[in-house]
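Reviewer comment 2.1 asked that we show a complete input and output for one of the modelled complexes. We chose the zinc ion case, as it is the one discussed in the main text.
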Amino acid sequence: MDSGYEYRPREVVKDVTQEFRLGEGRISAYLSVTLGVLSVLSVLAYLYPSYLTTTDLRKAYDGEQLQHVLKYGMYASLLFGMLTFVLNRAAYKKLGLIGVGLTLVAFALGGYSVPVGDVEPRELSLGVDWLVLAFLGSTLIFMTLEKLFPKYSDQLILRPEWSVDLFYFCFNHLAISAILIFANYQASHFDWALSPAVQDAVRATPVLLQVVLIVLCADFVLYWEHRLYHEVQLLWPIHAVHHSVENIDWLAGSRGHFVQVFSERALVMVPLYLLGADEAALNIYVVFAALQAVLIHCNVAIPFGPIKYLLVTPQFHHWHHSSEKPALDTNYGAHTVLFDRLFGTYHMPKDLWPAFYGTTTPLPRSVIGQLLYPVTANRQRWARKRRKRSQTD
Ligand SMILES: [Zn+2]
Ligand SMILES: [Zn+2]
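Response of the prediction step:
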């Protein structure tokens, strides 16, 4: 910790033009459009399950049961759409109309009564089911937490660049099967390290112990992967995309260059593959990792008590996103704080939180600019190097 550094509280200015207030029609307009989009996507997933659903995820839900949820969602979209007309604000009536229109399209496509049958599994598909379920689950759990325990209550749901991060959220979920195919393929290169004796020993331990083992091994790999992204100049611009977000909340964690998203999954798959733990332990780990990855970005000030000295919490990971000098290149852990403690990169100044987030060099604000940033940033760096060399020659 930098003892000479003067920490300041973060100032969040509430943008009242983006606020959701009861009775204005904005809440119902956004709900109507969101549910309308989700309805169309869901109906399409029911119509073309082998192209638009995820093989692994299909085992975890009952398609017929979820059609009831779809039914309520569709009627709710119509209801909220009509409510915008009752509340009668021109700007939101237009959105309400779009929401109703989308839901009518969902009805026209077959609505909630598309027959659910056997699915011919395809290796590569779009994870529309994963996107819809993760979006519903995340908004329900994490937005509720952010409303109940906000760290910054003036930071709004529609904070700057929310739509950029929503794009990343959609991309990451739709690409799930491509990510898993890539990750499994990369892990298979480690066949030479497989040891039946190790796997038998792992499986002989109780499931909870197996989970702890997976968490520690995955965290070790993720710690070093993360640290390399920060410390190797060539790699930093890829990871800088994740750091370019300046208002951190549940959605902000989705921002990440696709190279990072793919490589991270591939690397973490290696220890999971080699350990050969029971499926129950793997499933617990996957759920834990998915929830923790979102939670640590949330705008929440939940008192975690002694857990914060063990596991990565929002305060810990928010410091990782800080652009303040003492916090740069610290807190790499994904699951636990252990390896940051061990390798000297732990930064938790008591109960303080960062005042500033983002990168010290600003990144492009558009998705395309961020996609190309690893190329543009490295080209600029090499050009600077060449100039320096020619000046010294
Ligand atoms: Zn980082
Ligand atoms: Zn992060």
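Residues 242, 253, 297, 317, 321 surround zinc ion (ligand 2) (CB under 6 Å). We note this here for comparison with the apo prediction described in Section 3.2.
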